[in-house]
Amino acid sequence: MARMKFICDAERCIECNGCVTACKNEHDVPWGVNRRRVVTLNDGIVGAERSISVACMHCSDAPCKAVCPVNCFYTTDDGVVLHDKDLCIGCGYCFYACPFGAPQFPQAGAFGLRGKMDKCTFCAGGPEKDASKTEVEKYGRNRLAEGKLPACAEMCSTKALLAGDGDVLSDIYRERVMRRGRGGDLWGHATAYGVKSVPATQPAPVQQKS
Amino acid sequence: MKRLFARIAAVMSATVCAGALLAQQSTGPTLPPAELAKQQQAQTTAQPYNNKPVWDNARGAVSGYTSIPGPEAGVLIQDGGQTWRALKNGTVSVWGGWALVAMFLVTGAFYAWKGTIQLHESPTGRLVERFSFFERMAHWSTAITFSILAISGLILAFGKHILIPVFGFTLFSWLATLSKTLHNFVGPLFIISCVVTFVVFVRDNWPKAVDFKWLASFGGLLSGKHVPSEKFNAGEKVWFWGGLMGLGIIVGVSGLILNFPNFGQTRSTMQLANLVHLGGSILFMVGAVGHIYMGTLGMAGAFSAMKTGKVDEAWAKEHHEIWYNDYKAGKLARHENRAGHPQPVGGDD
User: Fold this and answer.
1) Given Cys at both, which of A91, A174, A204, B323 links B231, Cβ 3.0 to 4.6 Å?
2) B97: buried, middle or exposed (CB in 10 Å: 19+, 13-18, 0-12)?
């Protein structure tokens, strides 16, 4: 079984925000919600500037899943962390726990009342029937079910952002590092995948609704 | 009892430690961003093939540029979440949850031992007004809002462990949505009720020397010896200052921070507020179990005092002797002399 991961190669990212646009376009993400963002460190400082595209990293031991008061998260067989919007109550706990700032909330009312959480699905939709109308409306397109990889990585002009099976990505990345002789530190990987996958201690909601 | 206090103290100190830890974490690296950039610039010259320092520093408070709007959008990795998760799911919830269970057990055991404590003397049939209508309204507003908050809060904090296996996901999610909405809207009403209750009862809760005597023997609750007290005994006063005011402020302020996230609070602020809120509200509930027990099952006549506002003279003499003597001597102000007793000659105060 594949273990889906993201890699962002900081030696290649040129901060074009193509991944951000691709994502918004692919999933028709509502106004104010950004599933992916590009962050540039040391902006404008020669030699120290690096950009990283960041979204949900689909952690092995996902903190969002651990703190959710209604247990609406589940990890698919591919290692993708998804959630059920029918169960989500919009409490914001996942946002407090997430190291990457991935969970997003559309504003649903006055005083910062949150709507149901939205985040990167690794283009794998949600618990609804694959490619059904409700799935597209709630979670965006399910590209994985169509045999395609996430739109952000597919669209990346420099192939800085890679998405797919962790083993395959590692091989590609290792070769790059060997060839150029630098930049072997994978941003975010210790945080997201540093822990071995934990066996579920809580029951998970159904992974596929009929 | 001692062990229970030790547990409560453990939860309290865990909450404080959590706060300190989060505060420390949220500050991240001590160097200012400009200094860090300079360091990394030097790094690219000295060790061009080693970017590790860049990524080691790209945590916590270090924020980069991003075209995406939103608070903390420029932060790549926030560290506090993992600490918050560990403390919230672990220390605070586990110890707090068991402290609450222990409190129920201790109270149950106490009831099994003592039962409802009856009056020693037979009632006189003459009634004394103990609480005015307004005082009772203030008390019950606080009590009802507190109960709603306690139940909805418990559902949100522990429901996934206890109720999901019973109800299933869909029904529990509906219940949690209801709890969240109730909690968010009733919270501010509770704060207002607390403030009104504080103002109404503060005069009679002022600590006096006699309270220390009461506390020293725990009101004679265990020995059965009579200890005179004012309108409120020292136990009630501890609940007033420590519970209503102390925990009220702790839970109220942290609750408002969590309830109104539209003032640009950072995640570390929310994490800290959540832990303080969770720890504080568990202590509040532990105290409330004792308070509710004493006001209903524990002490005969206590509930009707807050329900009707009136108590029997025998009850007043036995439980609040100093207050009763003042009443008899006509020293009490306002309404308390209006319960069908002749006013003392030559004064209405």
Assistant:
1) B323
2) middle
Q: What is the CATH number of the domain that holds B93?
A: 1.20.950.20
Domain range spanning residue B215?
80-337
* A207 — pLDDT class (breaks 50, 70, 90): low
When pLDDT is averaged across residues A108-128 and rounded to a whole number, the result is 90
Token output for A144: 């994985």
In a domain, B238, yes or no: yes
Given an 8 Å threshold on Cβ–Cβ distance, is A185 in contact with B52? yes
A206 contacts in chain B (CB < 8 Å) = 169
Domain hosting A89: range is 4-193
Tell me which H or E stretch contains A54: strand A50-54
Question: Are B200 and B134 spatial neighbours (Cβ–Cβ below 8 Å)?
Answer: yes
CB contact (8 A) between residue B82 and residue A97: yes
What is the average per-residue pLDDT within B220-236? 82
pLDDT tens digits, B274-323: 999 999 999 999 999 999 999 999 989 899 999 999 999 999 988 998 89
- Give the CA dihedral B93, B94, B98, B100, nearest 10 degrees: -10
Between A37, A98, A181, which is nearest B81 by CB? A98
Distance between start and end Cα atoms, chain A: 23
Q: Chain B interface, mutation test: which of A6, A16, A37, A41, most B Cβ atoms within 10 Å?
A: A41
How far is A158 from B286, CA to CA, in rounded Å? 59
DSSP for B151-172, written as a single string: HHHHHHHHHHHHTHHHH-HHHH
Domain assignment present for residue B317? The answer is yes
**Does B324 reside within a domain?**
yes
Max alpha carbon distance in chain B (Å)?
Answer: 97
Residue B291 covered by a domain: yes
Check CB contact under 8 Å for B76 and A41: yes
CA distance A147 to B157: 40
Is residue A205 situated within a structural domain?
no
Q: Mapped to the 3 state alphabet, what secondary structure does B269-327 carry?
A: HHHHHHHHHHHHHHHHHHHHHHHHHHHHHHECCHHHHHHHCEEEHHHHHHHCHHHHHHH
A179 Cβ contact partners less than 8 Å away, ≥ 6 residues apart: none
DSSP assignment string, A58-122? --TT-HHHHH-TT--EEE-TTS-EEE-TTT-----HHHHH-TT---B--B-SSTT-B---B---T
Residue B302 vs residues B77, B198, B288, B298, B315: alpha-carbon distances, Å: 55, 20, 15, 8, 9
**What whole-number distance in Å separates Cα of residue A85 and Cα of residue A105?**
12
Residues of A in contact with B85 (CB under 8 A): 63, 66-67, 97
- Chain B contact for A68 (CB, 8 A cutoff): yes
Average pLDDT, chain B: 85
Write the ipTM.
0.89
